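lol ok so funny story. i was supposed to be doing the assay writeup but got distracted and ended up predicting the structure for this chain instead. priorities right. anyway since i did it might as well share w the group, maybe its usefull for someone
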Amino acid sequence: MKIILNQDVTHLGEEGDVVEVKDGYARNYLLPTKTAVIYNKANEALFRSRAAAIEQRKAEKRAASASLKEKLDGITLSITVPAGESGKLFGSVTSQMVQAELQKLGFEIERKRIDVATHAIKMTGTYSVIIHLYENEFSSVKLLVQSEAEKLAAERKAAEEAAKAAEEQAKAEAAAAAAAAEEAQDAEETAEAEAAEEAPAAETESL
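and the output, tada:
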């Protein structure tokens, strides 16, 4: 069936697009929900009259999509799940779980816009998740899937590194303080020596 979209539909088209879909999809979902209307001359003329407004909305969506892509491309999601020693998960990571992690970071992304590798990740590792934005724009988000044991090991390593860095900083500060104290003492001794040298000379002049 040939229809005109009233609103954007992921993987199908944007508002105002004329597309062909299966009759059942149109009758059972698109038409009853007013997501689309049947393509005919009257509806075509109606959408033609609204073309400027539709294009304005598309321009705004493109700008919002570009801004969102810039933010998404720079993040790394981390999901911790139970897994065996081999790295095989006791379950899988799905688009719903990715959506939940994105929400924690303040991103409201529809689940149908999130493409997880092989649809469900079943091993620990680093993956790329594709997020469809607007038109042909998409973002590739880095996803780290780790087991609970790996997370604990990473946290322990991070804590050890932080402690080592703090110790080295404390040593550097102590060394700097000691050097400053030694320099101050040297300056004081030099001043005393100069004062001692000047004292006899002053006495001689007074005589």
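The first strand starts at residue 2 and ends at 5. Helices lie at 23-30, 41-49, 51-72, 95-104, 148-206.
back to the writeup now i swear
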